[in-house]
Amino acid sequence: MNIAPSSKRSLTKFVVVCALMSLTLFLASCAGPQMITKSNKPEFEAKSGDALLVIVRTMSFAGAVPVENYLDGKLIGETKGKCYFITDVKPGVHYVMAHADNMVTARMNFEAGRIYFLQQSIFSAVWATMTGFSVYTYEEAMDQINERGSKFLVFDSGGSDVYLSEKDFQKAKNDFEQEVREDPERHKDTLEYKGYNKMK
């Protein structure tokens, strides 16, 4: 049976449209990691046997620039603008890393039942947006979270974990340890940070 050219074109267009719709639905169902804004702010309380890490980005400067955050090389969340997110951490020594146009690392000893606040700072260099870590007191963290309009974000992994490459993780870790050896005061605030046992 012969099909008229106009009918062939219509059939081809129909098949292409169906394929594009199927691809769109497939990609939507396989969405990768993302941060979701939540209106209800959480209670700061560590789960039984765990510690709680709170990363707070305090500046609206370069707010559209994302900063990825990792725990021992595993992606735990991303910040944009003035926001914060929380993640549970098993007790022990862990490396918290942040990646913008640079990579920064904090080595911290997490204790069960304690809450740790890290400030994620943003600053400008030549043609680059850089990030850094410093510690917060409880009062400083609450001021940023409750009084200065920081959004609460929740990390959705999209069903698949994301990791730094082993090469990048080891380089960031080794660079940090070298900095500690060369200048013991440089990371003293995060190395000695004890966090808080409970909220006031």
Structure in words:
The chain has helices at residues 5-29, 138-147, 166-182, 188-191; strands spanning 34-38, 51-57, 67-71, 74-79, 83-89, 92-99, 103-110, 115-125, 128-135, 151-156. The protein is of the alpha+beta class. It has two domains: 1-30; 34-191, Carboxypeptidase-like, regulatory domain (Immunoglobulin-like). The strands form two sheets. The chain has a six-stranded mixed sheet, with helices on one face. The relative contact order is 0.19. Mean pLDDT is 85; it is low at 15-31.
Q: Characteristics of this structure?
A:
4-stranded antiparallel beta sheet, 200 residues, Immunoglobulin-like, 6-stranded mixed beta sheet, 4 helices, alpha+beta
N- to C-terminal distance: 81 Å
Low-confidence stretches: 15-31
Q: Which structural class is indicated by helix and strand composition?
A: alpha+beta
How many helices in DSSP terms?
A: 4
CATH class of the largest domain: Mainly Beta
Count of distinct strands: 10
What coarse outline follows from CA principal-axis ratios? globular
Question: Can you tell me the CATH topology of the largest domain?
Answer: Immunoglobulin-like
Q: Using the CA coordinates, give the radius of gyration.
A: 22 Å
Q: What's the architecture of the largest domain in CATH terms?
A: Sandwich
Task: Please write out the topology.
Blueprint: H1 5-29, E1 34-38, E2 51-57, E3 67-71, E4 74-79, E5 83-89, E6 92-99, E7 103-110, E8 115-125, E9 128-135, H2 138-147, E10 151-156, H3 166-182, H4 188-191
Parallel strand pairs: 2-8, 5-10
Antiparallel strand pairs: 1-10, 2-5, 3-4, 3-6, 6-7, 8-9
